[in-house]
Amino acid sequence: MIKGVLFDLDDTLYNSSSFASRARKEALRAMIDAGLKSTEEDALKILNKIIEQKGSNYGGHFNDLVKAVNGTYDPKIITMGIITYHNVKFALLRPYSDTMTTLMQLRSMGLSLGILTDGITIKQWEKLIRLGIHPFFDEVITSEEYGLGKPNIEFFNYGLKKINLKPEEVVYVGDRADKDMVPAKNVGMTTVRILQGKYSEIPDDISDYSIKNISELSKIIKTLI
Questions:
Q1: Which of 59, 74, 92 is the last residue of a domain?
Q2: 3-state DSSP of 125-149
Q3: How many whole angstroms separate alpha carbon 147 and alpha carbon 19?
């Protein structure tokens, strides 16, 4: 019998991929205007490489970019990028259209709800608060808090411990097969993959359920409680 649901955050409850891409491009334009010696296209290639190497939650993307392009530390250019990125991000940050309704429905079923996500704790909390969905969750568990992230199965076990439920009592909802579905399934949770975001076209054969919209989740949960 299902008693709780753990969610990934980025690209599961809101569209992280599209807003981040646009915010980065706007930030680069502002940095170039402030003195970054690069074209937007070349700067984006370098920035994407930095993000790939150091992860999306690394705090020095723009610092490294300025050093790589201009050869020196320039706080004005870096700050211009940070301010522009956050201004655009916050203007675009919205939950998926059916996220709020779905969370309300799950709450009405008496389920415990939690977030289990990679990322810096303060940054992930900021997203939840700005999205307006933080009151729905009993626990917000981050990789920074635990010290290890996805796809480490001990991180998922830690999430279960935090919400005080057994694996067979929990549904895990995420967008990635490799980092969400595989470890959650290996721990023993029921898995629901939401096919949204930049990983939506990557196939998998491990998810118990696949959905294209979060509005489909409540119907699945009702069959499991």
A1: 92
A2: HHHHHHHCCHHHCCEEEEHHHHCCC
A3: 27
Do both 177 and 211 map to the same domain? yes
Domain boundary (92, 113, 132) is at 92
| Residue 23 and residue 34 in one domain | yes
User: Is residue 106 a contact partner of residue 220, using CB atoms and an 8 Å limit?
Assistant: no
Give the residue numbers spanning the domain of 42. Answer: 17-92
CB 201 within 8 A of CB 208: no
Dump pLDDT digits (tens) for 5-40: 999 999 999 998 888 889 999 999 999 999 999 999
Give 77: exposed, middle or buried? Use CB within 10 Å, 0-12, 13-18, 19+.
buried
What's this model's pTM, rounded to 2 decimal places?
A: 0.86
Helix (H) or strand (E) holding 192: strand 190-194
| Residue 78 shares a structural domain with residue 126 | no
CB 66 within 8 A of CB 82: no
Question: How many domains does the chain fold into?
Answer: 2
pLDDT tens digits, residue range 131-155?
A: 999 999 999 999 999 999 999 999 9
